[in-house]
Amino acid sequence: MIETAVYDSKPYDREYLARAASEERIAWRFHEFRLSAETAHAASGAQAVCVFVNDQADRACLEALSALDVKLIALRCAGHNNVDLVAARDFGLDVVRVPAYSPHAVAEHTVGLLLTLNRKIHRAYNRVRELNFSLSGLVGFDIRGKTVGIIGTGKIGRVAAQIFRGFETNVIAHDPFPTPKWATERNIHYTDFDTLLAESDILSLHLPLMPDTLHLLNSQTLARTKPGVFIVNTSRGKLIDTTALIAALKSGHIGGVALDVYEEEEGIFFQDLSGQVLLDDELSHLLVFPNVLITAHQAFLTQEALSEIARVTTANILTLETRQPFLEGTTL
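Above: the chain sequence. Below: its structure as tokens.
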């Protein structure tokens, strides 16, 4: 039996992971707190740890896990920027992830955010609940005929682009590793980054966080976007420089922003802070803009995605029984 310490676990994690593996093969130890150098000791006796996007597997943490004889770091997500891969190799720790769970879940949430923000559905919902049936201030625009710029055409970006094509939009895309055959079949056109910024009425981000994508949208690049542009980010919060974003919103250059991720979401997202004072001044500032819509990193949260995350994560952990190459997840 493989003892596995699951950090930053929520009720849905416990439900879907328990379904995916029999108790005879994996013994789950669920912890609500996050993994860090300070909490690594909770993995004592475990052969594997299972972590999510805000767990911090830095060198100090991985050294502590190695000293406990942990063999595997299993990410139940696609992103891995929170893991020091060099340190993992130094300490002989295997790191695996779930490279694709449900691109449709994230892509559909992307479009849902845009529709909600544009047509002000969230504001209308609150009004009607208070018996305010006025339509003043709820004017949106037709998505049909607009130009949508997709930045990043991996699995999620391609699905999002295809959904937007269903709205009869003009979809343009930018990716350092384009997929020309797919683009031709879908009547989607690749272009350079500056052209995409200048021509897009709607920008949708679908790319990983890497050194060259950190603050991809900053004061300089935001200034090159089309006046009144709507921006949707369901990828990684640090793709956007929040300070620059607020400045562009205050100037009126940006028409609207929909975010499922935030630059400094650790310690905030996935938590109930309703009885506390929000100490993040920039997030507090974003929340007062009427043309900003924020959800708390829930784009992945569908039954299908949770099932696939649990299935692949479990398969990755079970390879410890034989130490065979990882077939389901990607070894990093």
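Residues 103-119 form the longest helix (17 residues).
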